């Protein structure tokens, strides 16, 4: 099978499962009692995580985590107790894998309290677990391009690990290629875990990247032409110069659980 056909088949398999992400789902949610848990998330954001989205973060079950492809996804979530909670709920960013078999989400305490009506944050914390409904929504970073952070484990010229930050839209990145700026000799990177990708075949000089991005039934290449300088350094985040704003398509059967009202 040709590389093109393999790529097309991969897009079909992945996009078929994600196309209904805007449907409303019913589940339960709990919260992290210790903020330190947010720094050890499976997506690999580490100490950067609490600074995302004003600290409104979540861990999702494996079907949402998607072996790391779901890292950085945004969800609108609200509890179903009309007396205690607002109809708006809150928007969270997924930064971790949820190992709690009682709930689909575990939220940061800040996000959990944000679902409550004004002045009732402590009341909702007292419940511990609440019935919620949620839907996937686009992530919006109006003044922030996709970021490429070089991980501390990177060692020039033999190993490069990067972490993707500020991935907008309702998208998933399923493949990354890297090449020297001006070269067409692309090499692939592998997902190490979560939002971290790596390669032991590091091109010399300044580096460009191209990403395979899926959104619903649509998939495409996005090219970031000049991202890492020749003297790139571990621990530094670089601006990719691109924004990802794609939205999942509705090419699927009707949602089972109604619409968000």
**Helix coverage percent of residues?**
10-25%
Per the principal axes of the C-alpha atoms, what is the gross shape? elongated
Q: Which series of helices and strands comes N to C?
A: HEEHEEEHHEEEEEEEEE
Instruction: Enumerate the spans where pLDDT stays under 50 for 5 or more consecutive residues.
Output: 1-19
Number of β-strand runs: 14
Mean of the pLDDT scores? 88
Spatial strand sequence of the major β-sheet? 13-12-9-10-11-8-7-14
Which structural class is indicated by helix and strand composition?
mainly beta
Strand percentage lies at: 25-35%
Rg over alpha carbons: 19 Å
Q: Major beta sheet, specifics? A: 8 strands, antiparallel
Give the terminus-to-terminus CA distance: 46 Å
* Helix run count: 4
Task: Give a written overview of the molecule.
The chain is mainly beta and 261 residues long. The chain has helices at 3-18, 62-65, 109-114, 121-127; strands spanning 25-31, 57-60, 74-79, 90-97, 105-107, 130-137, 147-150, 160-165, 172-180, 187-193, 196-199, 207-215, 218-228, 237-239. It has an 8-stranded antiparallel β-sheet with strand order 13-12-9-10-11-8-7-14. The protein is elongated, with a radius of gyration of 19 Å. The N and C termini lie far apart (46 Å). 39% of the residues are buried. Mean pLDDT is 88; it is low at 1-19. Residues 40-144 form the Expansin-like EG45 domain. Residues 158-240 form the Expansin-like CBD domain. It is found in: Secreted.
Summary of the model, kept short:
Residues 158-240 form the Expansin-like CBD domain. The protein has helices at residues 3-18, 62-65, 109-114, 121-127; strands at 25-31, 57-60, 74-79, 90-97, 105-107, 130-137, 147-150, 160-165, 172-180, 187-193, 196-199, 207-215, 218-228, 237-239. The protein is mainly beta and 261 residues long.
């Amino acid at each position: 099978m040709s590389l093109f056909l393999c790529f097309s088949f991969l897009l079909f398999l992945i996009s078929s499962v994600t196309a209904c992400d805007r449907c409303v789902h019913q589940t339960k949610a709990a919260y992290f009692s210790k903020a330190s848990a947010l720094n050890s998330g499976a997506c690999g954001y580490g100490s950067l995580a609490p600074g995302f989205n004003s600290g409104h973060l979540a861990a999702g079950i494996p079907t949402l985590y998607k072996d790391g492809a779901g890292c950085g996804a945004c969800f609108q979530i609200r509890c179903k107790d009309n007396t205690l909670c607002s109809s708006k709920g809150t928007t969270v960013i997924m930064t971790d894998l949820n190992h709690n078999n009682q709930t689909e989400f575990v939220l940061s305490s800040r996000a959990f309290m944000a679902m409550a009506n004004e002045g009732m944050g402590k009341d909702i914390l007292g419940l511990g677990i609440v019935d919620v409904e949620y839907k996937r929504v686009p992530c919006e970073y109006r003044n922030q391009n996709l970021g490429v952070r070089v991980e501390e484990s990177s060692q020039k010229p033999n190993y490069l690990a990067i972490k993707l930050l500020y991935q907008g839209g309702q998208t998933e990145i399923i493949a990354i290629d890297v090449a020297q700026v001006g070269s067409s000799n692309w090499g692939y990177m592998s997902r190490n875990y979560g939002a971290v990708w790596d390669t032991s075949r590091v091109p010399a000089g300044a580096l460009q990247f191209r990403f395979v991005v899926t959104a619903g039934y649509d998939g495409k290449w996005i090219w970031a032409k000049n991202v890492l300088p020749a003297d790139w350094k571990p621990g530094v985040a670089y601006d990719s110069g691109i924004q990802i704003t794609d939205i999942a398509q509705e090419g699927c059967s009707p949602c089972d659980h109604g619409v968000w009202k």
